[in-house]
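Structure tokens please, single chain.
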Amino acid sequence: MPVQMTSITRRVLLLLPTTTYRAEAFVSAARELGVEVVAASDRPSTLQAELPEHLLTLDFLKPDVAAREVQELARRRPIDAVVPVDDLTTVVAAAIAEALGLPANPVQSAMATRNKAIMRQLLARTGVPSPRCTALSIEDDPGTHARQASYPCVLKPLILSASRGVIRVDDPGEFVSAFHRIVTILKSPEVEALGDPARQILVEEFVPGWEVALEGLLIRGDLRVLTLFDKPDPLDGPFFEETLYVTPSRLPAHVQAAIADCTAQAARALGLREGPVHAELRVNDRGPWVIEIAARSIGGLCSRILSFGTGMSLEELILRHALGMTIPSLERDPEPAGVMMLPIPRRGILTEVRGKEAALVVPGITEIAITTHTGQEVVPLPEGWRYLGFVFARAGSPAEVEAALREAHRRLEFEIVETS
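Here you go.
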């Protein structure tokens, strides 16, 4: 990685949706590096008028418009890198970087990661193993397609993330019910605003197997694996709520190598070249299958368990790459670690959280972050997409990490009052 020697302060544009968990981690990493931050969100800040050179409001759903606005700012105060932090900002980040002449993924490649039908077509065209699929309009008659489908299969929105709206079905009756349930999600105002892809539903074959998540960094098209997470809880449906992520993986070395190779093939198939990638794969007796690949890093607060070299955070690593700075090491701290995304058991109002102190004394537990406030409505999958919070652990082995997370979760109690 080339070193740029300059006394001029470097400036990074962070694209921070108001719904992201990631803002604090990226801003803190930039501060550690002595990098000036320009923060762009999809809603105006109360301080924007006072800090117009540091706070922007951009329409993330109009990449060309956002790119022109940032170009105007960059004429006054040059920007050295653009970093998206969530799915919603990957396409607009590519458009802005292209307009500024900065290294980034092509816009079309970023768009392919946001549209599951296009992603599947590109993967199939290049022979990357992924589920067979068909895209339906929300105006279609689900009964006709239900009679033609092979079971089990999975219905999912084209453009949402975090397993929102993803439902496994085992017969025509479940197909029709799931179709209507997803249509209701897609007709919510914030989803309708995403445009034409929000008017389609993907029907794909269900791929059985052990699920993993790969965190990687693309450097001029070369995939560098940062870590591989096991997901110890079976994800067989009907919904696909992720809970446990544990690293290092307990899969055999040759299987891990096959997963890395499959992910690299998928990135090439989509034309991705620069920056973080987060891939979800399943592994069975036929090898690894790509379920998703995103042009951004791991979501939520999960990155808190990752450390590289002598303590570099994932966010610092990403910023260093984007700015062309030296990356001291891509080697992850070898200590086994894991995170539990606390699931929402039922819809209602969170009124009380008990047992946090008891959970914190479980050997191996390092932190518990309850991110849902009391008095706030909580919505489980498939309609919801957020979590009650996160539990973090470190221990001598992946098995001990998993056990600590499960015990801490057992000790936590969430009082949720159901609403009518």
